[in-house]
Amino acid sequence: MARKQSFDEINFEKFSGRRRKPRGRQSIRQLSLLAEEPGRLDYEQTFRDGDLQSLYENGLINELLAEIKSGKEATVYLARGDHGLLAVKMYRDAELRSFGNDQLYREGRAIVDKRLRRAITGNTRKGRSARQGMWVAEEYSKLCKLHAAGLACPRPLAIAGRTIAMEFIGEDGDPAPRLADVSLSPPEAEQAFAQCMELVACMLACDCVHSDLSAFNILWHKQRAIVIDFPQMADFHLHPRAWYLLWRDVENLCASFARLGLIREAENVMELVNERARVLRWQQKSDGNS
Fold first, then answer.
1. CA atoms of 203 and 148, how far apart (whole Å)
2. HEC sequence for 160-174
3. N vs C: which end of the chain shows fewer Cβ within 10 Å?
4. Does 203 fall in a domain?
5. pLDDT of residue 7
6. Which of 175, 191, 216 is the C-terminal boundary of a domain?
7. Structurally, how many domains does the chain consist of?
């Protein structure tokens, strides 16, 4: 049996690549305060960022260790807390983010406050801040709902402003690879595809459509597919284009697995997913009545 690594033995160099720095991304040094730093207010202040400081004060994290991945909207960091490793997803500041592509995903989400709705439509500073808050809150609420329903996804731990703390998926500090980055044998590809379709069906049974599903936001960990990234998720009954988004998710996955030599017709897969979702809904109702 392989020896478990200590924190001091984790090779953090593997997290750093020569990627172009996304606008608004901050390094660990920028986010953390050194013990002797003049700007430090007191011995309890550990992070410059208020959201991280809030997680620290609530006992969730003690320090950031490395950057796991960075995209246009958010950066995910590896953190250490009293109970081990966890992932911390920090969204960009609202003023540094582009919301040009989120109109499709916002359809079907009710905004009761008329002034707030006008601010969002007008793309004012208040509107951008509100959209940011809604985006982050949507991901956290869906994580909570779907993890409770048994979906294979990271366990949500806490939300603070534009930051979400969640279960770290990996081993000894080594993050699980994306499905797009692994080589699978034909039997493994069959197994992975079946698991991915189960993910889609489980989300649909909870009236959710991922809306941006592909091999790039599914992790492959210990022969298990684990779905991530939920802010754009659509309500199946409220979103006017839910069927299109569901079809796109299935088609994206079929295309990803076709590159591995596994050919599946999206139309046939859609039928199987819908049938499986009906079975899961019936099971949920049966469990609720028992």
1. 12
2. ECCEEEEECCEECCE
3. N
4. yes
5. 41
6. 175
7. 2
